[in-house]
């Protein structure tokens, strides 16, 4: 979203458009989960940088980099777990994690604690960073397809993945992408645009792809009031006919930023493209954590889409570190669910 600039005269249409932008900015600020006792949130008009509490394991490598692309250069951090001793020619899986609005990659690493799983299961984690010059609130511009910004950012993220794969032992046949909120929507856009490059995708609290084409329409999409469609892949890839990768969706039914209606809409859209049908809804609960309503959409005996609606969860990473924005420690462990789903696709 561009920064607001003074205008000397405004038509009624322009004023309405700017009101939508302002509402979108308010809605995409970090919110704190109801179940977590935290200090009062900062003013929604001013995104505040925060220092994560113990964001990374003491061991392993946290490497900074930058990749140029059609949307300009984007910074990233790559986490490489310790003791990744490889035999000659051996390569490891890569999980790409996309942060939400008002959040950084480092904060997502701290909240999700995905790096702990990377240590245990020996995979690399890439955290691309949105530039505030590209979006004042740190949102990935998943919605801005009318101007071409969304597709340019998707191509730039792909360039960052390629850059990392050239310099590190990444198995390009085992790459997954996951994201929170705006990052979830961008993850879905990436997988839909480049289906042959990703073997699993996970959306946490995101909006269905193709449901908005500008910041003005993004607000209605976030409320679940717009129809969605799958973005067309680039012409060169369309000829390859790669199917969409399997999709995991996690969404809280108490989310007041992105309506949970988007979860079912995305599941139905993705499943239809893969010829999958919904099975019976199951309710699962572990201990005192929030319960989940789970629906699997299967084709040819395999789950192509898994929808997990989490009871009582707001706009937050389920099972995340306590005391952080976008994090609810009372929820099921989203990071474990994401990695288990992604790893299952790698084994097929």
Short description:
With 348 residues, the chain is α/β, with parallel strands linked by helices. 29% of the residues lie in helices and 21% in strands.
Protein described:
About 30% of the residues lie in helices and about 20% in strands. The strands form two sheets. Strands 1, 2, 3, 4, 5, 6, 7, 8, 9, 10 and 11 form an eleven-stranded mixed sheet that branches. A two-stranded parallel sheet has the order 12-13. It has about 350 residues and is an alpha/beta fold. Mean pLDDT is about 85; it is low at about 1-20 and about 25-55. It is built from nine helices and 13 strands. The protein has helices at about 10-25, 105-110, 115-120, 150-165, 180-195, 215-220, 235-240, 260-275, 335-345; strands at about 60-65, 75-80, 90-100, 125-130, 170-180, 200-205, 245-250, 275-280, 280-285, 290-300, 300-310, 315-320, 325-330. The protein is globular.
Topology:
Elements (H helix, E strand, L loop, with lengths): L11 H16 L33 E7 L6 E7 L11 E7 L6 H8 L1 H8 L2 E5 L20 H19 L2 E11 L1 H12 L6 E5 L10 H8 L12 H4 L8 E6 L8 H14 L2 E2 L3 E3 L7 E8 L2 E9 L6 E2 L8 E2 L5 H13 L2
Parallel strand pairs: 3-4, 3-5, 5-6, 6-7, 7-11, 12-13
Antiparallel strand pairs: 1-2, 2-4, 8-10, 9-10, 10-11
Helix pairs in contact: 1-6, 4-5
């Amino acid at each position: 979203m561009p920064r607001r600039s003074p205008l000397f005269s405004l038509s009624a249409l322009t004023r309405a458009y700017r009101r939508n932008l302002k509402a979108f900015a308010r809605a995409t600020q970090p919110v704190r989960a109801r179940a977590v006792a935290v200090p009062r949130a900062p003013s929604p008009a001013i995104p505040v940088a925060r220092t994560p509490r113990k964001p990374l394991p003491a061991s392993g490598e946290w490497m900074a980099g930058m990749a140029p692309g059609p949307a300009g250069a984007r910074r990233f951090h790559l986490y490489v777990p310790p003791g990744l001793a490889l035999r000659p020619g051996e390569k490891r899986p890569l999980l790409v994690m996309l942060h939400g609005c008002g959040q950084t990659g480092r904060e997502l690493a701290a909240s999700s604690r995905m790096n702990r799983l990377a240590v245990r299961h020996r995979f690399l984690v890439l955290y691309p960073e949105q530039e505030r010059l590209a979006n004042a609130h740190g949102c990935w511009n998943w919605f801005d397809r009318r101007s071409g910004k969304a597709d340019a950012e998707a191509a730039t993220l792909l360039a960052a993945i390629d850059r990392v794969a050239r310099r590190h032992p990444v198995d390009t046949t085992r790459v997954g992408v996951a994201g929170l909120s705006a990052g979830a929507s961008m993850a879905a856009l990436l997988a839909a645009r480049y289906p042959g490059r990703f073997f699993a995708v996970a959306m946490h609290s995101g909006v269905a792809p193709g449901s908005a084409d500008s910041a003005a329409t993004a607000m209605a999409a976030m409320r679940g009031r717009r129809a969605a469609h799958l973005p067309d892949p680039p012409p060169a890839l369309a000829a390859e006919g790669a199917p969409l990768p399997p999709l995991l969706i996690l969404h809280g039914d108490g989310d007041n930023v992105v309506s949970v209606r988007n979860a079912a809409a995305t599941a139905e859209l993705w499943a239809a493209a893969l010829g999958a049908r919904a099975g019976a809804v199951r309710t699962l609960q572990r201990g005192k954590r929030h319960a989940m309503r789970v629906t699997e959409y299967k084709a040819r005996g395999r789950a192509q889409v898994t929808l997990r609606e989490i009871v009582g969860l707001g706009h937050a990473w389920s099972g995340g570190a306590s005391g952080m924005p976008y994090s609810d420690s009372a929820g099921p462990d989203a990071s474990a669910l994401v990695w288990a789903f992604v790893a299952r696709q790698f084994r097929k």
